Amino acid sequence: MQVLDSKIDTASESFLANKAYMEAYVDKVRQVERKQLETELGYRPRAHQRGKLLPRERLALLLDPGTPFVELCSIAGYGMYDDSDGRFSGGNLITGIGTIARRRCLVIVWNYAIKGGTIDSVNVKKMLRIQQIAFRTRLPVVSLHESGGGNLANTSAMSDPWATQLFVEGGQIYGQQAELSAAGIPQITVSHGNATAGGAYQVALSDYIVLVRGKTQLFLAGPPLLKAGTGEDASAEELGGAEMHATVSGTGEYLAENDADAIRIAREITAQLPADPPLAHRGQAIEPPRYDPDELIGIFPEDRRTPVRIQEIIARIVDGSRFDELNPALDPGTVCGVAKIGGKQVGIISNNGPITPTGANKASQFIELCDQKLTPLVFLQNTTGFLVGTAVEREGQVKHSAKLIQHVANAKGPKLTILVGNSYGAGNYAMASRALKPEFVMSWPSARQALMGGAQGGKVMEIVTLKKWARKGIEPDDKMKQGLAGQSQMIEMGLETISESMFCSARLMDDGIIDPRDTRRLLSYLLDVALEARLRQVQPLSYGVQRL
Length: 548
Known about the structure:
Elements: H1 13-41, H2 44-49, H3 55-62, E1 70-72, E2 93-100, E3 103-110, H4 121-137, E4 141-147, H5 164-182, E5 187-196, H6 198-204, E6 208-212, E7 217-219, H7 223-230, H8 236-240, H9 242-249, E8 254-256, H10 259-271, H11 310-314, E9 324-325, E10 334-341, E11 344-351, H12 357-372, E12 377-383, H13 390-394, H14 397-409, E13 415-424, H15 425-430, E14 440-443, E15 448-450, H16 454-471, H17 478-499, H18 501-506, H19 519-535
Parallel strand pairs: 3-4, 4-5, 5-6, 5-7, 6-8, 11-12, 12-13, 13-14, 13-15
Antiparallel strand pairs: 1-2, 2-3, 9-10, 10-11
Helix pairs in contact: 4-5, 12-14, 16-17
């Protein structure tokens, strides 16, 4: 394979300015995550007084010491509803991929220290996304559950103040839990505390249930609702305590003495699952890139109109900076080629400009070549979308772009996407955004997702308005022109705001914002997850595991 050359001067003013911009944005994301942690830590005195571990203390006990934990959707809900600075973000969940008893697992930790771990619209969307990942990766799901149930005071409901719509949408979670069990994907849940109504189903639909003596409260209706609905008086322990469920109802298989003991049992159950499947590249020497991956922090400019040669990014991600590019002379705006990341062969598709009919055809052919070998595809998005105009329309731009979308949607191997820059229009779909269901989508701080760029959006509305006036025979005066200019400016500012990476990540349009310097390590880890999926042994059942 050809070794890529770099033209980046890491001592230049532009590189250092890019680095400062990117580092500041990464810190902005970390500040939101720190705000979540501060909110959780503020609950520590009450938690410890009640004999409970904090959510992240539980997580630390669950994971194998010294192993990585890739957190997913960490800033979900940031700046939305009643969150202003991140303290109530995260969807009341800590989710990610980690190693438990030497098995890779999807982990869900309910953050009861934030809003009681209650269920709201962000929580539901995050849970549904994590379940999608479970289906694609076939990873066992280990949940540390403690939730106050549906948040009836949820200001995020707005037009649905009593959460009726949320109740219906949340039902998808239970349906998918049943489907995961029937698909042979194990679900292990510790019920650490409150599990009411929908929270009770999230526990009961699991394949393995660990209860905590004196702490678990598992019931469809808690004591207040029971009293209101039937007039019956019962304590939480009588109604749904751990001992009752372990010895009478049979809703749980394991009875633990405290939080730590319950997590120990969950680890022992996980250890009984099949080991992670072996991958061919393990144990082989890995050739590092010839250019330092840490230099990725200074490659992408704050002004996204400045061209970025995508080969500079590829050179700092792939093994040995070696990249076998497919027909680089044919439409260099669409870049396709084969490389290795952490010893694993991948096909890379990326952009040095808008996607032309020729570029779409080249990418479609490349996907077919990768499909012959089930080669994973890595998409590095930086495109303003498909090129428009009379000439390209006559060349069949709609036809060829639709064909590329078909190829991406139906690609046989795993798909991983990193949004490094612009991601506009149908180019967002064709380069494997969340819409086309890749295994994982991560964003750099410089990423932008939108129908179109802000300047283009403002200009489009200006043209539309002028044509409307012309049809009505209106000749705009200076005041109307000034108003139109103001409208265009507002549209541009609005589109820039809603396309910004933290805005998009808060709405789960990706699986998280990453530090560019972590791109190679993260891709290698997620490629392992994706490649193991097709080797991971699961035994489907008719209806999933049931307690009779």
